[in-house]
Amino acid sequence: MKAKPTRSICRVHLVRIVCQALFFALFLAVLFMTRTSGSETIGPVERFFHFDPLLGLVSMLASRTFIAAFGFALITVVVTLLFGRYVCGWVCPMGSLVHFFTYLFQKLKWTRHHKEPARHLRWKYLILLFVVVSSVFTLDFAGYLDPLSFLYRSFSAAVLPAAMHATEAATALVHRTGLPFPADRWNDFLHSQMIHTTFRQGAVLGAIFLAVILLNLVRPRFWCRYLCPTGALLGVLSRWHPFKLKADKDKCNSCQQCALHCVSQAGSHADEKWHEAECFHCFSCDTRCPQDAIQIQLTAPKAKPDSMGLSRRELILTSALGIVAAPVLSVSASERPSEKLIRPPGALAEDKFLSKCIRCGECLKVCPTNGLQFTMNEGGLLGFWTPVLVPRIGYCEYYCSLCSQVCPTGAIKPITIPQKQQTRIGTAWIRKNRCMPYSIAEPCRVCEQKCPTSPKAIVLVDTEFMTPDGPIQVKAPIVDTTLCIGCGLCETRCPVEDEPGIYCTSRGETRSEKGFSMPEYGG
Predict the structure, then answer these.
(1) Are 485 and 453 in contact (CB under 8 A)?
(2) Within 13 Å and on the Cβ side, how many CA atoms surround 143?
(3) Model pLDDT for residues 291-341, shown as the tens digit of each residue
(4) Where do the H-state alpha helices sit in 178-271?
């Protein structure tokens, strides 16, 4: 069965595609703008997240605070209540991406159109219920599966770094061939975008992202159909919208083309029940209908909207899992934090930080030294994929506070550079068995030279060492713990490559409510 002529379907369909492309381009523009440019401030590059109602709802429930910036999410809510899930079908960059790959796989004939029971669509609603119930008990799980957090995290730590490595390898190869290609200028341009290429979990995040894309081979827009909790929330809200798509029974010839090509499985056939909460309003059904039977009708909202297909048993079980998640996961938390858990300057106390952090990776993307990384086991199960400073990779720049400016939820509170310079995120310690003056009596003053504080937190003192030729005097470093802020520059620049002679831990951090009694000198 052929689709109807292009001129009768082109307008709305083309507008939807252009709208998706524009919003995805806006997402990429904001992504590339999230970088240091030499200025002390950065624009509101985190604003995209503030239109997400799920992030706003869960962050405020989990942290027990009101976050005014998420007032923009009311726009999304109002649009959904009036018109349905247009945000999913026309605006969401994650939805646009998976829609593109769905279209591509179908064009390549790698996947086939077929229907399945609508019962399977309930999984995203169960995920939504688990996330919301958990947030009541201070657990913020929204960032793991929220489309904006997922896409931003994947692009920042996997897609862009991988593209950077591939591009550098390709330009180096072209440069060696002697072809007339401005490889050096191209490399300079790429480096000017401040795309970091080192992320400890980049391969894992890249594999997860690739899996989500390949799942479109199994079902069209698999992510949107079964996994997206934000789409589920918008689906719940859209059950009352008055502008609905309807199939005219007088025109419909029961060809089933609309139902087969529906990427959301809303059941658009005239003889079937239309699942309004699932419809993205992408108008794929209208595109495929040869009889022009699909129409938009203004109807009064139902007094009792359709159910989401969830049984009472499923609701109770999912809610119970959300309730027990907090105490079960808290069992793994230690009273003493990991020495490697160095949070960014401005980060809230750990419990409050975890209740607000959405694991988006904005702070990692904007960090000029690539020192901020996603946690592995430093923060326990509750802190997985939250930011941590890894001085072996990069340090905390003394004259930078950008990470505190881009956090969408305030998990890292905004601070000025003078405030940042007085914020202690940890303390440096000397490894005397690795530090060259202490271990082999060889002079070295790199850590003292690189220390950015004034007065310097690392000072050199005359120290006597015994050698086979007798005692000698060598200037050795010692840390003044009352001045050290734990920026990690000394560890990053230490010339001992395998295991630095100086390292930083989180001890003495300003954000700790317990605090620590620090001696005047340490090492």
Answers:
(1) yes
(2) 27
(3) 776 776 667 666 566 667 788 898 999 999 999 988 888 776 666 678 899
(4) 183-192, 202-214, 222, 229-237, 257-260
Q: Determine the Cα–Cα distance for residues 305 and 89; give it in Å rounded to an integer.
A: 21
**Portions of the chain given CATH number 3.30.70.20:** 343-419, 424-523
- Whole-number pLDDT of residue 7: 46
Q: Tell me how long the chain is.
A: 523
3-state SS, residue 174: helix
The token pair at 269 is: 């056939």
Q: 457-492: per-residue pLDDT in tens? A: 999 999 888 777 778 889 999 999 999 999 999 999
Q: Is 297 helix (H, G, I), strand (E, B) or coil?
A: strand
Q: What's the gap between Cα 87 and its chain centre?
A: 19
Token reading at 486: 């734990």
Strand partners, 389: 372
Please tell us whether the domain made up of 343-419 is placed in CATH 3.40.50.20: no
Looking at this protein, which amino acid is placed at residue 343?
R
Over the range 86-112, which residues count as b (16 or more CB within 10 Å of their CB) and which as e? bbbbbbbbbbbbbbbbbbebbeeeebe
Confidence of residue 183 (pLDDT cuts 50, 70, 90): low
- In terms of CATH architecture, what is 424-523? 2-Layer Sandwich (3.30)
Selection from 103, 70, 212 nearest residue 155 by Cα: 212
Q: How far apart are CA 104 and CA 100, in angstroms?
A: 6
pLDDT at 361 over 50: yes
